[in-house]
Amino acid sequence: MLRQIIRIDREKCNGCGLCVSACHEGAIGLENGKAVLLRDDYCDGLGNCLPVCPTGAITFENREAMEYNEAEVNRNMAKKNEEKLPCGCPGSNAKVFKREKTAAGGSVSAPVEAPPQSQLNQWPVQIKLVPENGACFKNAHLLVSADCAAYAYGNFHNDFMKNKITIIGCPKLDEGDYSGKLTGILMSNNIKSVTIVRMEVPCCGGIENAVKTALKDCGKMIPWQVVTLSTDGKILE
Asked: Is pTM, for the whole model, over 0.70?
């Protein structure tokens, strides 16, 4: 049948693999360091891979191709989700939490005697574990925080996490650099804004620098801000 499907220019492809991550259906893979369309019937023709390609190697074309096999794609995606959990840990399963909102966009007021409501809107929260194309990132305001910040600042949930997607890390203890993962998140999703919360300690500069690198490399103009906390829980100017 004649239908719209992607075309990959191997000469332009730099083998970054961002399109592979962006393709939820598993239609794209890497062969000999270049992206290739593995199966016509896995490509839905919607082009989630197009905006993440840094070299413009992916375009649309109309040609004879097998019909999109949605049923098989869904089965394969479900099987992969069961078999390939981050770090092999069932606790790394991605989840989105539906928090009640008022008409003004805030959380529903709770009785005075009720315990504070969590403002965490998704799971997992570790930068190393979150999927780059998680449903939680759609049109999200992103909070990238040092993991110890919530312990230093008493009202962290309401002042920083509320109505945001929160991801955390510790550049001193985690291996590797976050900038590549963060770049993938920014490129693959329509992120509305980025807030960085770091501690005043020097090692926290790593998380701030990683976000700044990602903001520069993603090729998008995204509003951002940095908030620095003192070790005794105060916001520093």
From this structure: no
* Interval 200-210: pLDDT, tens: 999 899 999 99
**Domain extent listing, the chain:** 2-83, 86-107+115-236
In 3D space, the residue among 144, 149, 119 whose CA is nearest the CA of residue 196 turns out to be 144
CA–CA distance, 155 with 124 (Å, rounded to integer): 21
**Residue numbers in the chain where pLDDT is lower than 50:** 102, 104-105, 107
What are the backbone angles phi and psi of residue 122, rounded to the nearest 5°?
Answer: -160, 165
Q: How far is CA 190 from CA 92, 136, 229, in A?
A: 23, 11, 28
Cβ proximity of 228 and 195 under 8 Å: no
In sequence order, what are the beta bridge partners of 30? 35
pLDDT of 104 = 46
Q: Which of 2.40.50, 3.30.40, 3.40.50, 3.10.620 is the CATH number of 86-107+115-236? A: 3.40.50
Task: Identify the CATH number of the domain defined by range 2-83.
Answer: 3.30.70.20
- Count CA within 13 A, CB hemisphere, residue 229: 23
